[in-house]
Amino acid sequence: MREVPKEAEIPSHILMLRAGLIRMLSAGLYTHLPLGLRVIQKVSRIVREEMNGAGACEVLMPTLQPDTLWKQTGRWNDMGPELMRLQDRHERDFVLGPTHEEIITHLVASALSSYRDLPKNLYQIQTKFRDEVRPRFGVMRSREFIMKDAYSFDKDEAGCKSSYDDMYQAYDRIFKRCGLDCYPVAADTGVMGGSGSHEFMALADSGEAEIAVCKEANFAVNLEICEVPPVPAVEPNPSAPDAEVVDTPNKTTIEDVTAFLKKKPGELVKTLLFQGGEKVVAVLVRGDRDANPIKVGREMGCLVDLAEPGVVKEITGCEVGYAGPVGLKSDVEIWADPEVLAMEEMTTGANQTGRHILHVVAGRDFKPTRVADLRWAVPDDPCPEDPSKAIEVVRGIEVGQVFQLGTKYSEKLEATFQDEDGTSKPMIMGCYGIGVTRTVAAVIEQHHDEKGIVWPESVAPFHIHLLSLGTHMPEIVEACDKLAESLAEAGFEVLYDDRDERPGGKFKDADLMGIPWQVSIGKKSLEKGVCEITRRSSGERSEVSIEEAISFLKDRSNFQ
Ligand code: ATP
Ligand code: MG
User: Fold this and answer.
1) How far is the CA of 29 from the centre of ligand 1 (A)?
2) Whole-model pTM above 0.85?
3) Can you tell me the distance from the alpha carbon of 96 to that of 67, in angstroms, rounded to the nearest whole number?
């Protein structure tokens, strides 16, 4: 593709379109073209080898799934609008699988029944569907994508931990083999449920995930769950001035209020109403901080979201933007981040449209129900492992995730087994995902230059790009045809460019497609009996006699 659409912003998306790996059908839906499909197959092969090597067995489950199992686990509701739903001709509800815990657990419940059957680890490589709010970045966040998903079943926690460790190690090998600079970070367990989880993050500036790292303390977690070591509270100052309500007409944002009142954001306190199920709480964070919904959700014990404006109005009696802890409806709990209690006084909303309160003192003017770490960590916050060091925040692409699930699914779907002592127990589960198509995009993010893709040998669509630089000259055609054949016989995968195009254009395309070795024969080289061999990654060129081309390439490459 010469011109790519402007919504293609990141290198992998642009290069996948330009080099002819994918074509878009509509938002988040892509056709994988021959070159792109070959890379998917290479990645899948690595995944299969490592999964099989780790003792997992491949299966293939249906994508189309009846609603019943999803209703049994509660995820028919919990997954919300991301779950693709449809009806059959009898108006029965179905789901297009976004992940397969329900289906595999149902299978295992009926197929395995004794401790002797365990442990088991089953996996598949299959198309998943998720109705993402914002499909973007090409196959990085699409609505239909290929995932490898594995599920382990064990008889006890120790077994589950060991299955988890095996998968963790296998993931490490898989991503290394794909050429990714990738590292595991501790992660939130989200709607999957469960006790422990790691995400495998490929470092890239274009990554959507943020990772808190502290190299000195060997610490890396998803920023979503990065703890902030608490700061000590201050005692209320008895001689502090009284709270004072002031007019702040049409000033609803921190920027507007600070400019109007001539204050710094850190002197204000934000009051945000979060709702989880029926419960609404008021969350207080310093004005220069942001409340972290995942931390709020952990405190509440369920997924939370900012309350709708209607709910905010009902609780505060004012428009959105003026909520505050003073004089809030008494049945609404006030949860404060420790930093708020470290402020001698603060400016807050007044629960009156167009008004704020100055000189609010915690403990005197309002009493928090709970004090907890509720804000997003930011660069330079103290490291939770070693508070004398600071964290930095880097970006990454989540290419895989592993979870210790516990018994959430096995209990609900009755996947039990009879233990040695004759008692019936739920199996302990783990689940493990890899975004195969996202991995392809992540590899390109880490392996490209201004001319195009630079494939690592392990996942390159072909090994050798053979360029005929004289398709109108029978002797060149003959020499190239012959070389193509002998390279293939020697086990190389050859993409043979025999188009009637100018050499400049051919090399440009070859650089764009990024196949590790370019081998060309033109008029001059044929006269000398040589071909020109260029390594894409370094640009290093060599003239090699046509007879020696194969041994030259064999010596310098490591294709598997
Ligand atoms: P994200 O947080 O990026 O939405 P997720 O945590 O919801 O991803 P998982 O449920 O852990 O995703 O799925 C396993 C893997 O599938 C992810 O690690 C990722 O590589 C891949 N994946 C998830 N959603 C998408 C998507 N919309 N497009 C492409 N790959 C995806
Ligand atoms: Mg994930």
Assistant:
1) 15
2) yes
3) 10
